[in-house]
C-alpha cells in the first residue's frame, strides 16, 4: 500500500509540469550576456517583462551578470503595446554592445486558471544565440501548473530555474 501511494503521489506531482531541456554547449564563465525582450504570447499584460526580471535574477545566481536591454522611452499607448517597436529598439541597442551571447524567449502562459482553486499556469521558452552571427546555441521550453495557494511568480521562478538547469556555464 505504501509503494502504491508513493507511485500515485509522484505521478500526480509530475503530471503538473512538462519540460524539454536539452543540455547546452559549454559557455565560458567570463562570457558577456545580454537579455533581450521576450515575446508575450500570453493573455497577461507585462508577463514577458516579469519573466525577464526573474530570468536576470536566476542567471545572476548562476554567475552570469547579464545586461538588460534599455527601457523604451515611449509615451503613447500604441508604442507601449507594440512589441515590435520594443524589439527594434533593443536590436539597435544590441548592435552597440560588446556581448557574446543573447538570451531571449517567449512567455506562452502566465495566469491563474479559472475555477475553485485558481492554480497558476506558466509556460516559457528560452533561447540563447551567439551575438555575432545570431546562431541558436540552445533552446528549452517548459510549462507548469502550480497548486491553489501558489503565486504565478513562484510558478514562473520554478519553470525558469528548471530550464536554466540545462545551461552549462564553466
Computed CA radius of gyration, to the nearest angstrom: 18 Å
Number of helices: 5
Q: What is the beta-strand fraction?
A: 25-35%
The gross shape turns out to be: globular
Order of helices and strands: HEEEEHEHHEEEHE
Helix content: 25-40%
- Global mean pLDDT: 89
CATH architecture: 3-Layer(aba) Sandwich
CATH class term: Alpha Beta
Q: What separation lies between the terminal Cα atoms?
A: 45 Å
Instruction: Could you tell me the CATH topology label.
Output: Rossmann fold
Largest sheet: 7 strands, mixed
Q: Pick out the low-confidence regions.
A: 5-15
CATH homology-level superfamily: ABC-type transport auxiliary lipoprotein component
Our count of domains comes out at: 1
Question: What does this molecule look like?
Answer:
This protein is an alpha/beta fold. It has a single domain (22-169), classed as ABC-type transport auxiliary lipoprotein component (Rossmann fold), CATH 3.40.50.10610. Helix content is 35%, strand content 28%. It is built from five helices and nine strands. Strands 1, 3, 4, 5, 6, 7 and 8 form a seven-stranded mixed β-sheet that branches. β7 and β8 (136-145) form a beta hairpin. It is globular and about 50 Å long.
Amino acid at each position: 500500500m505504501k509503494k502504491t501511494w508513493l507511485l500515485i503521489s509522484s505521478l500526480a506531482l509530475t503530471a503538473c509540469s512538462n519540460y524539454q531541456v536539452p543540455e547546452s554547449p559549454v559557455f565560458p564563465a567570463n562570457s558577456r550576456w545580454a537579455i533581450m525582450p521576450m515575446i508575450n504570447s500570453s493573455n497577461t499584460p507585462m508577463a514577458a517583462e516579469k519573466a525577464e526580471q526573474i530570468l536576470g535574477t536566476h542567471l545572476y545566481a548562476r554567475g552570469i551578470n547579464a545586461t538588460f536591454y534599455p527601457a523604451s522611452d515611449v509615451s503613447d499607448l500604441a508604442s507601449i503595446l507594440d512589441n515590435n517597436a520594443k524589439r527594434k529598439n533593443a536590436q539597435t541597442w544590441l548592435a552597440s554592445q560588446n556581448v557574446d551571447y543573447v538570451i531571449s524567449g517567449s512567455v506562452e502562459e502566465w495566469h491563474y486558471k479559472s475555477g475553485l482553486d485558481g492554480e497558476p499556469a506558466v509556460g516559457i521558452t528560452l533561447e540563447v544565440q551567439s551575438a555575432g552571427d545570431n546562431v541558436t546555441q540552445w533552446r528549452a521550453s517548459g510549462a507548469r501548473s502550480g497548486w491553489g495557494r501558489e503565486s504565478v511568480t513562484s510558478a514562473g521562478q520554478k519553470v525558469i530555474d528548471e530550464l536554466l538547469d540545462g545551461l552549462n556555464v564553466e
